[in-house]
Amino acid sequence: MKTILTAAQTREADRYTIETTPIASIDLMENASLAFVTVFMQLYPDKNTQVLICCGTGNNGGDGLAIARLLQEHSYDGVAVWIARFSERESDEFATNVARLYNTPIPITEFFTGDELPAIRQRVVIDALLGSGLNKPLQGDWLRMVEHINQAGKPIVAVDIPTGLRADGMLPQEEPTIQAHHVISFQRPKLSFFFPESANAVERFHVVDIGLNEPFIEKLPSDFKLIESSDIQQIYRNRKPFSHKGTYGHALIIAGDTNTLGAALLACGACLYSGAGLTSACIPPTGLTALNAHLPEVMYCTEEELLTMWDRFDAIGIGPGLGQRISLLEDCMAHTHKPMVVDADALTFLSQNKGLVDGLPKHSILTPHMKEFDRLFGAHDSWWDRVQTAREQAMALQLIILLKNQYTFIALPDGNVLINPTGNPAMASGGMGDVLTGMLTAFLAQGYPPRDAAILACYLHGAAGDRLATDSGMAVVPARQLIQAIPSTFGNLFPPH
Ligand SMILES: NC(=O)C1=CN([C@@H]2O[C@H](COP(=O)(O)OP(=O)(O)OC[C@H]3O[C@@H](n4cnc5c(N)ncnc54)[C@H](O)[C@@H]3O)[C@@H](O)[C@H]2O)[C@@H](O)CC1
Ligand SMILES: Nc1ncnc2c1ncn2[C@@H]1O[C@H](COP(=O)(O)OP(=O)(O)O)[C@@H](O)[C@H]1O
Ligand SMILES: [K+]
């Protein structure tokens, strides 16, 4: 897992690296600029691309100047530089790089006001106006220049972070920023990239290593960690020789009502395809034919039968499409003490009966989307606040709160918040959450601790969606199809020995 840093912590890592390694600040800037240029050249390999680099006079601007020089050294001969001299202050590294740039043929235009800026004729703009040093909203000349650049309608590649976007903390919806098509961010993605409020500022981001001291960074106190594929490799256990269905646990899905049986079928299908040894479905009798037709591997269990069967199940997932059958949640809570997965209608029921939340088995996994979350824990104006609440509630209630979104936040009882990097907008359609519930239940049934089950399920759910969207070029990934891609996604990530 990678620790996500605040802007202040990035400065700390910067200072520590300079103090403890034989690297000067100006060389660190050169590293960062070279790392940027390496990715930029992959994005725009045509050396005839006309590039305008807009620089401030701090270190972000210093990066921009170095990038201009390096692009020119790599034979990009249509490079031009604008310098926004809206402040008296210049950083030392900026000053050094200006002097270096004046030794090249690159045209440099300096602006002392944001009024009457010339039209942008270049094909691509690099935004190096302000970086993580941002300390107030853009206004005046800065704002005019940022608006001018956005209005030019050219692809924008931001250095480190789009100008105007805060790296962390609350993101006011209406604050203007550069609207970047790509952001090439140094050492770590910024926390704000994972919040929906940054959608206009960041279309895609790339992260480059610039040589900051990694052991120091990993020791910095941070509540936020980004999940990586290596974490999945560590957690996942391949199926063993001589194993049998009993080895992989018995999962129970309590879901579906007469008109919402599909949700139950999706959750059961995902549970089956995620490797539970046995899957039972407690669905209404009217769904039996559909269950047998669609998922003959899954066993049917009536509400009456449940009364004598609770002990047989290794894990229970409850909620998708449960409708009127919601009293089953209380039965379930009365009879099982193992962590369970609570989703959809079961979450709504909890938000109407808040006293019940305390009675959930510790380390149970709640899977609210934004609206379900706010119904449970109160309205929030920003994702920053929502995630803070998730963290506090996960600790107070000793539950795992999986706050679903493009980047799902997994708030753990120990106060850590994990961010899942997989998944894409092709997955934004009904039933996708039911699939996640089935996957979570399957991993719990297989004996993964709840934290590991949450990480595995979120990561593989998104990875299966990414495989279909990216490798198979599907613009929309229906939940049913995602279920079928689960086994091959596993197989791809963990080839059998
Ligand atoms: N963190 C690192 O390890 C490295 C960072 N580098 C670069 O350094 C950048 C940070 O540089 P700086 O700290 O010099 O800051 P910036 O270049 O982001 O900003 C310069 C100055 O602008 C002023 N300012 C902030 N918000 C403003 C606003 N809304 N309107 C007008 N003025 C405003 C502040 O006084 C700030 O110090 C990073 O984003 C990155 O691009 C790289 O040079 C290499 C190493
Ligand atoms: N843009 C997106 N990128 C990645 N994942 C997404 C996106 N939109 C939705 N998802 C995933 O799909 C699921 C949607 O869950 P939910 O809203 O509960 O769906 P439903 O109730 O229809 O089953 C979540 O796991 C979420 O992370
Ligand atoms: K920038």
UniProtKB/TrEMBL annotation:
<protein>
    <recommendedName>
        <fullName>Bifunctional NAD(P)H-hydrate repair enzyme</fullName>
        <ecNumber>4.2.1.136</ecNumber>
        <ecNumber>5.1.99.6</ecNumber>
    </recommendedName>
</protein>
<keyword id="KW-0413">Isomerase</keyword>
<dbReference type="GO" id="GO:0046496">
    <property type="term" value="P:nicotinamide nucleotide metabolic process"/>
</dbReference>
<comment type="subunit">
    <text>Homotetramer.</text>
</comment>
<feature type="domain" description="YjeF C-terminal">
    <location>
        <begin position="228"/>
        <end position="493"/>
    </location>
</feature>
<keyword id="KW-0479">Metal-binding</keyword>
<feature type="binding site">
    <location>
        <position position="434"/>
    </location>
    <ligand>
        <name>(6S)-NADPHX</name>
    </ligand>
</feature>
<dbReference type="GO" id="GO:0005524">
    <property type="term" value="F:ATP binding"/>
</dbReference>
<feature type="binding site">
    <location>
        <position position="60"/>
    </location>
    <ligand>
        <name>K(+)</name>
    </ligand>
</feature>
<dbReference type="GO" id="GO:0110051">
    <property type="term" value="P:metabolite repair"/>
</dbReference>
<dbReference type="Pfam" id="PF03853">
    <property type="entry name" value="YjeF_N"/>
</dbReference>
<feature type="binding site">
    <location>
        <position position="369"/>
    </location>
    <ligand>
        <name>(6S)-NADPHX</name>
    </ligand>
</feature>
<dbReference type="Pfam" id="PF01256">
    <property type="entry name" value="Carb_kinase"/>
</dbReference>
<comment type="function">
    <text>Catalyzes the dehydration of the S-form of NAD(P)HX at the expense of ADP, which is converted to AMP. Together with NAD(P)HX epimerase, which catalyzes the epimerization of the S- and R-forms, the enzyme allows the repair of both epimers of NAD(P)HX, a damaged form of NAD(P)H that is a result of enzymatic or heat-dependent hydration.</text>
</comment>
<feature type="domain" description="YjeF N-terminal">
    <location>
        <begin position="10"/>
        <end position="218"/>
    </location>
</feature>
<dbReference type="GO" id="GO:0046872">
    <property type="term" value="F:metal ion binding"/>
</dbReference>
<feature type="binding site">
    <location>
        <position position="160"/>
    </location>
    <ligand>
        <name>(6S)-NADPHX</name>
    </ligand>
</feature>
<dbReference type="GO" id="GO:0052856">
    <property type="term" value="F:NAD(P)HX epimerase activity"/>
</dbReference>
<dbReference type="InterPro" id="IPR030677">
    <property type="entry name" value="Nnr"/>
</dbReference>
<dbReference type="InterPro" id="IPR004443">
    <property type="entry name" value="YjeF_N_dom"/>
</dbReference>
<keyword id="KW-0547">Nucleotide-binding</keyword>
<dbReference type="GO" id="GO:0052855">
    <property type="term" value="F:ADP-dependent NAD(P)H-hydrate dehydratase activity"/>
</dbReference>
<feature type="binding site">
    <location>
        <position position="163"/>
    </location>
    <ligand>
        <name>K(+)</name>
    </ligand>
</feature>
<keyword id="KW-0630">Potassium</keyword>
<feature type="binding site">
    <location>
        <position position="321"/>
    </location>
    <ligand>
        <name>(6S)-NADPHX</name>
    </ligand>
</feature>
<feature type="binding site">
    <location>
        <begin position="131"/>
        <end position="137"/>
    </location>
    <ligand>
        <name>(6S)-NADPHX</name>
    </ligand>
</feature>
<keyword id="KW-0521">NADP</keyword>
<feature type="binding site">
    <location>
        <position position="433"/>
    </location>
    <ligand>
        <name>AMP</name>
    </ligand>
</feature>
<keyword id="KW-0067">ATP-binding</keyword>
<keyword id="KW-0511">Multifunctional enzyme</keyword>
<feature type="binding site">
    <location>
        <position position="263"/>
    </location>
    <ligand>
        <name>(6S)-NADPHX</name>
    </ligand>
</feature>
<dbReference type="InterPro" id="IPR036652">
    <property type="entry name" value="YjeF_N_dom_sf"/>
</dbReference>
<comment type="function">
    <text>Catalyzes the epimerization of the S- and R-forms of NAD(P)HX, a damaged form of NAD(P)H that is a result of enzymatic or heat-dependent hydration. This is a prerequisite for the S-specific NAD(P)H-hydrate dehydratase to allow the repair of both epimers of NAD(P)HX.</text>
</comment>
<keyword id="KW-0520">NAD</keyword>
<dbReference type="InterPro" id="IPR017953">
    <property type="entry name" value="Carbohydrate_kinase_pred_CS"/>
</dbReference>
<feature type="binding site">
    <location>
        <position position="127"/>
    </location>
    <ligand>
        <name>K(+)</name>
    </ligand>
</feature>
<dbReference type="InterPro" id="IPR000631">
    <property type="entry name" value="CARKD"/>
</dbReference>
<comment type="similarity">
    <text>Belongs to the NnrD/CARKD family.</text>
</comment>
<dbReference type="InterPro" id="IPR029056">
    <property type="entry name" value="Ribokinase-like"/>
</dbReference>
<feature type="binding site">
    <location>
        <begin position="59"/>
        <end position="63"/>
    </location>
    <ligand>
        <name>(6S)-NADPHX</name>
    </ligand>
</feature>
<keyword id="KW-0456">Lyase</keyword>
<feature type="binding site">
    <location>
        <begin position="404"/>
        <end position="408"/>
    </location>
    <ligand>
        <name>AMP</name>
    </ligand>
</feature>
